[in-house]
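Throughout this review, each integer encodes one residue's backbone shape. One record appears below.

===
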Amino acid sequence: MKSRKPKQAVVLLSGGLDSAVALYYAKAKGYKCLCLIFDYGQRHRKEILRAQRIAKTAGCLHKVLKITFPWKGSALLDKKIKIPEKLSAGVPVTYVPGRNIIFLSFAISLAETIKAGAVFIGAHSQDYSGYPDCRPEFLRAFSRMAKAGTLGKYEITAPLLRKNKSQIIRLGKKLGVPFELTWSCYSGGKIPCGKCDSCRYRAKGFKEAGQPDPLIK
């Protein structure tokens, strides 16, 4: 009897907590994953190395794709814009205009090329409250566009979309996600700053999940 060929998926892997959980979720669903990591000039470049380590630990191949946003437009790309040190109301200055549109477009092209059946992204409810390219209606619209504009037969899957950070952490714990390898801080220093949006949401999530953050000694 022939063994069944594993399903293939492209996973957008940033090196952050959410994308790591999305990767391990895809693996748990039986997908053979190819991780797509972007070097887009982000000030927290440490996450690129973390993403590579997470992919290797998960036993997955990865590709690092270097692109540029020469017009910047975000605190993550322009060091003249200060990273906020309190939780932002509305769209934060860390939003990179059109980033997920661009990332998903590359992922769809890769998925079509390798005949993958799915593209996984770690977008979730906390993100789409501030980032317009993480909203459910955007992901639904992008899925329709991708199906209309390509020959591929795949789904854009956001398994964390309706979960908050503590729920994501609990799920990751069950899936065996190596949280000690993830990186969330936008400042890109040797240790997490503990002040930026991302650090604060991470700390709140671990506290509500009743779990210690392995990055905080």
Notes: Helices lie at 17-28, 46-57, 99-114, 125-128, 136-149, 165-175, 197-209. The mean pLDDT is 92.
